Amino acid sequence: QVQLVESGGGLVQAGGSLRLSCAASGRTFSSYAMGWFRQAPGKEREFVAGISWSGGYTYYADSVKGRFTISRENAKNTGYLQMNSLKPEDTAVYYCAASSDVRTGYPYWGQGTQVTVST
Fold this sequence. Notes:
single chain, 119 residues, mainly beta, globular
């Protein structure tokens, strides 16, 4: 079991930046791949970014590529999502998730943190 807690959300103007954190506890965080997802009101949850257990491999949704950066510090049991050049359409609840095998999905989820981007 891995417990995940997100933080760092808030209200920001378009063009601004935020950094989300995902603190993990329980089993060894470094054993898990990590992902960030988001869900806007009235929309389905969507994948944003993912990172391998070592941090050596990252991948992004096209909508955030070049603006968002996913990273992790296994020694601190923490993952991050740096979000730059934010747009109003990035407004959503952001969730971090962990998986020992992303081919089977993400079984562990945080409670989410709200990100609101104003015009």
